[in-house]
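Hey, can you fold this one?
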Amino acid sequence: MLNEQWLDIDGDKLYCLSTQLEPAKKTVVFIHGLGESHLCFVDALDYLPQYNLVMFDMCGYGYSPASNISHTTEFQALRVLKALDLLEVKQCILIGHSWGGDIGTLVCHLDNQNRIGGFINAEGGLHEESIILSKIISDKYRSSDKSEFKSWVHGSGFAEQFSLSWGHSAGVKYLSSLRRCSPIVLGETASEIYEQHKTLDSRGVVQWGQIYESLRLPKCYYWGTASLEGCGDALKFITSLENKPFQDENHWVQNNAVLFYQEVDTFIGCLEKILRRI
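Sure. Predicted structure:
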């Protein structure tokens, strides 16, 4: 049986969908990307029944109302840590997709209780070449009034320009979540992500990418070869890290659910081998 609840975190409500949390099972926590919701990882319920599974909707996205306090990426990361406290999760493996990978990076960075035993960053924005859609959304947000931007997000504008033109199921899932999100939160978040361009180093690696690189815990970067086609500098950096390429896959590498969750299971199995050697 699945459980859903809205966790009360400093007066904000954070939606959480989870399996029954059993002490004998390892716990895997999922964080969605910009404009998305827990739906981007819902296939895990079919492919990872051997684990406790926890999925959040960040404030302003999916079933979580907009925050009364802040929607910055760091604040969202702090909410995840507080949510783990409320759920009494003492140890987990963290998986974040796209902006969720950026949130996950900061969760690991801010985790002072060593709750994160391993981290999979799936297509997070480590490099300037991989922050493209955020710029488009940010530019539209800055050049439109609130009503016009909301209509573009929830109406046919974004759908026809992107999701429907992509022609794949991940785009349809994305659109379903996008139409539930707060357009203002989406615009502000996209702007914050694009602001990362001001923090890049000589390699084109943005601040969140530099933090990810410095994390001292087992981690792996998952990426689709079709997603980063033509991004030579980004590829040079990503392949210098522990990484897993998904051949011919797009930005939503988890859309190939059989392969993606098989690789997640393999990653967790490698963690167990490391712990047995210690």
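The chain has a mean pLDDT of 95. Let me know if you want another pass with a different chain boundary.
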